[in-house]
Amino acid sequence: MGFRMRFPAAHALLTAASLLAGLVLPQPAGADAPPPTGRPHLRVVVIDHSPPFSDRDADGLLVGFNIDFGRELCRSLGVVCSFDAAPFKQIIDDVAAGRYDIGFGNVLRTPDREQRLLFSIPYWRSSTSLVGRRGVPELGLEEAIRSRRIAAIRGSRQHAALLRLADADPALQANVIPVSTLDDLWEAMRSGQSEMAIGPTLNVVHFLLSDSGDGFETIGTPMSEDGLGGTVHIVFPPGQHDLKASVDRALTALRNDGTYQRINRNYFPFDIY
């Protein structure tokens, strides 16, 4: 059975440092310089614009769930971390190449990525949601693409799902509206360029909680099959097994002492773990 997610109604729904001392590598361009300290330094990268996980405030400072949780993780590890931001695909490439030590890229674990990266234990779970104007009938994705223009971020797993459906019927290609960013995703609906949008559920939640989300709601239930969801992981360069083990222990400790839940509540009305 489907559900409609418009808030506040959806509130109901919805730690080692010694192991890290040898990890400092050449500083990537654009990242913060490590502060003068005797503690080990780690370079952390997050997605450049994926609210509420990561974004920049009016002063250009990185803010969001991944930044707050990343800082607590670094504190628990006893290291100093600098944070940088990059597009999603660049995060995977740069962490795999060792230009960063930790990637908070909201990365799903897939066989091809396992060939290039190490993965932490899960730290939240992802799904995908359709969103449209309030009052749109509940539709599954395959049904929706046959009757509605749907915006998706170009190159995302949601975009790939739409293209797979459209490949079966070339006439449906016109109903796939590729856009570049999350902001473009929501603007496509507001402007009428598309009738629906498809994106990660937690980004959809953030949109619906904002003033811009007034008049919109989720269409149908969140989707996780066919690559549209799953467990999300912190990623590390290949070979950094000690770092991964330390982060896994720290992540578990931060959930056990309630730190994770406290940060979670600052951004989401339900537990995302």
> Which structural category fits the helices and strands?
alpha/beta
Mean pLDDT: 88
Structural shape = globular
* CATH homology superfamily name of the largest domain: Periplasmic binding protein-like II
Major beta sheet, specifics? 5 strands, mixed
Low-confidence stretches: 1-31
Number of strands: 12
Per CATH, the class of the largest domain reads Alpha Beta
The helix-strand sequence is HEEEHEHEHEEHEHEHEHEEHH
The CATH topology annotation of the largest domain reads as D-Maltodextrin-Binding Protein, domain 2
Estimate the strand proportion. Answer: 15-25%
The level of helicity is 25-40%
Rg result: 19 Å
Judging by the overall fold, what is the CATH architecture of the largest domain?
A: 3-Layer(aba) Sandwich
Number of domains: 2
- How many DSSP H or I helices? 10
Order of strands across the main sheet: 4-1-5-12-6
> What gap, in angstroms, lies between the N and C termini?
23 Å
What features would you describe in this structure?
The chain has 273 residues and is an alpha/beta fold. It has helices at 17-20, 65-77, 88-96, 111-114, 141-147, 157-167, 182-191, 201-209, 241-256, 259-267; strands at 41-47, 55-56, 62-63, 80-86, 102-108, 118-126, 128-133, 150-153, 176-179, 196-200, 216-223, 230-236. The strands form 3 sheets. A 5-stranded mixed β-sheet has the order 4-1-5-12-6, with helices on both faces. Strand 2 (55-56) and strand 3 (62-63) form a beta hairpin. Helix 2 crosses helix 9 (241-256) and helix 2 packs antiparallel against helix 10 (259-267). Mean pLDDT is 88; it is low at 1-31.
